[in-house]
Amino acid sequence: MAGILAWFWNERFWLPHNVTWADLKNTDEATFPQAEDLYLACPLAFCIFMIRLVFERFIARPCAMGLKIQANGPQKAQPNAILEKVFTAITKHPDEKRLEGLSKQLDWDVRTIQRWFRQRRNQEKPSTLARFCESMWRFTFYLYIFTYGVRFLKKTPWLWNTKECWYNYPYQPLTVDIHYYYILELSFYLSLLFSQFTDIRRKDFLIMFLHHVATISLITFSYVNNMARVGTLVMCLHDAADVLIEAAKMANYAKCQILCNLLFAMFAVLFISSRLGLYPVWILNTTLFESWEIVGPYPSWWVFNLLLILLQLLHSFWSYLIVKTVCRAISKGKVGKWNPLHVSKDDRSDIESSSDEDDSPAPNQKHHNNGTNGTNKNHGTNGYLTGAPYPDEH
Q1: pLDDT averaged over the chain?
Q2: Could you give the domains of the chain?
């Protein structure tokens, strides 16, 4: 184990030439980032998760009820043992051949079976109330941490001159503000990572899991090798747009469509300008070129910049999805009635829709009724539908 730790913390990887870990030990005159400082983030992440539960229950939920957001989730599918077995053991999205087989087996028409599977899938989605509470929690945190970051950074020299991120590097003392900023951001993303396994699993589970892991890795990496100054710039830049998208989601769930459209437009402008403009010109310029000129490259420098470049590629992809969503609405001439958070499945990222899967029945849709009075003649299944199909899910 000692050999593995010595290999992992190799000074020639983490630190510039002629710098050792002993040089960065805390003294009476100066305090430097220490890897063990980050251990505090784990219990703090649990505390943040508990605060989230209290916040959603006693603050966000009453706000949602005041906005007439209903607590009930999507309509539940009628219990049916055969379809439930297919859903849980085989597929949640049966193809046409399987649908036809189930139709013959249950003596239901295909349209009714399709509707059952839609309703059953919707049962596993969080209700609009739960989504609103989650977005309100994130909005509150992002607003607080972004406000804190701006108030802290406007007093620092590296906000106005990014070369200050590298002067006297890595012998830059750790201030209380930087330590608090880093630990709080890291704890929040750890809490999001943990909560993914307790919340209702969503379609973007893997994408968001990888996003949280990448964010946690960048925060940890920049803290350990004392790139904390530029790290604070990266965190503050990213928190700005997150405030607006969560606000837009809240407006969407509350059915305030005009406000939702306005907030999303502001989000799109801020996201694209900050992630495709400010990020490469301000952040990548200083990490790639100014740091090369002042400090020079070393192994962890290459890794850190590679991670930041990969982040830029993600920015480009997400910006493409945003622009694609806007262009589709304009091309269809539906800007006035456009819901920017209700996008196609192919375009889904962190942008969510408040509505569930919807597929209204075709006009004059006919349904088989063999007069069996609710009993399947072959299997005795209690679940045959007589009369109208399931109502649309909203």
Answers
A1: 83
A2: 33-66+129-336 (no CATH), 81-124 (1.10.10.60)
